[in-house]
User: Fold these one by one.
Assistant:
Number 1:
Amino acid sequence: MIMDTLAALALATEPPHPTELKKDRIKKHDKIILPVMYRNVFGIALYQILVIISLLYFAPMMFDYADHYSYF
């Protein structure tokens, strides 16, 4: 936490280099989230949902754990 804070302060208080100011800026019509990013986000979310649901239903059988909430 301390190391991150000090680095952020150093970067925030230092003025930008002149070559950085001359770079092309983002225009209003530029997309921030690309289609590849959408595909990655939804793919990872689907994977995590499938893992959570499968663990919810099959973990008692897989780990030999019996409780009164088990559906099998």
Number 2:
Amino acid sequence: MNILFISSEAAPFAKSGGLGDVIGSLPGELKKLGADIRVMLPMYKTIPQKYRERMEFIRDFSVMLSWRTQYCGIFRMEHEGVTFYFIDNEQYFGRDAYYGYYDDGERFAYFSKAALEALRMIDFKPEILHCSEWQTALVPVYLKTLFRGDPAYHGLKTVFTIHNIEYQGKYDRNILQDLLGLSEADRGILEYDGAVNYMKGAVVTCDRLTTVSGSYAEEIMLPFYGRGLENIIKENRYKLCGILNGIDTKLYNPYRDPYLAARYSKKNPENKRVNKTALLETLGLAGNEDTPIIAMIGRLAEHKGIDLVISVFDEMMRENIRFVLLGTGEMKYENFFREKADVYKGRMSVSIGFSAELASRIYAGADLFLMPSISEPCGLAQMISLRYGTVPVVRETGGLRDSIQPYDPEKRTGNGVTFCSVNAQDMLGAVKRALILYHDKEHWPVLVKNGMKSDCSWKASSKEYMKLYRDLL
């Protein structure tokens, strides 16, 4: 079985969030199950030199994007047993960031077209193309339009994964011919609600549609979560399924993590206390190993439930806690937490930005991990916190609902604390329940151990993907 992942990100070459983590780890897990899995990425300027030095140039050719004739180079390298191909074009990818440019629609239309053209040039004949997010949504669209009838692509199937339906790739309806090179006869594939919508095109043209959790697959057919595409998703629900993401358990492992003050495991968790003490010292927080630390790591955005936290923040800080935040996002949220850090000096730490080293130390040193997302397709942070023995407090939505089960003191089951509604007081109630458990010397060790024993790997999910591929073929 030959599968080619076409993606705008894959760790360690390019990563801005969960997509990079997934495409960086899932192909290797699928390869263990016997498939020949390869990955195709843009050749970003920011790819570290140590990887560039290992790349082999294959060839170059021209790609037609409507009336434009553009250069394309193909490079190849092996990384941890997986073959990666890189599409090179300095005009589109020789930039300091992956996204956020006025011509993003053109850049990733080019990448989608070039990826398909490159299949003629590489030493690999895939049976399935697995694409993700709006940046590669035109791959199944082009396959069913411009490449339709070409014998070189006969029988080639496509899988499209929605990691976050909020970002759909919406552009002016006039780009259909001038930029994308498609005919008016194809307008119905891409146009929706007065715009050309890349993701909509992929949803209607792909052979299988997936999301990153079972709950999210159900949610995106509802107006609250579907972001305008809910009716299109419902029309294509016959090919939709949700498969929960996993994490790289070798990378996120407190027994091997080089950034920790002391390493530990689910069998010997005692050194977690050493990391807590080290975190307090590093961040300049008052307290000791009995003072609960609540942490948040991630993007500061509305759909992450930040407004819920803000609404009851002072009330939450009346509890005897220490609060640690690492993240970046909307300016209004960054400013709020900076101001509160001055108010609660010695009890609160705010680090705007991202550091893998500090993230590891927070996961290892915190007691509770707060993740009150309004919408969370899958979420990886709650899984990482489980690995590090930090108890998640989450809202029951998307992948949070599928990965975190509320602790039951009678049965001693469950790996976290949850709440249901989009309500700040309900979130605060969950935090207070978690703090009661923290001070319960009988149940807290059980809850922590349950979390560390949770299977957050790709083991089960990779088998589900293999079944999907077999069924498709």
Number 3:
Amino acid sequence: MLKLLYFAWVRERTGQGSEDVARPDGVATVADLMAWQAGRGAGYAEAFADPARLRVAVNQEHVGADHPVADGDEIAFFPPVTGG
């Protein structure tokens, strides 16, 4: 199982703040997971249409798209943080 967390506009588009999902076959990296997410429906397609617009943390550590994902991981998706 993967614990997925969504923040800010990612949460708004997916319609939820978190969910637990079984790691899909063929999903080995963050990039694989984002591609799988984009195929889950309209809101997910919109949220994950441009992976470059998202930041990701695996187990509360910022990672890149090539980072591996494994059962038991907590994966958070959020937009870049800007200061003012």
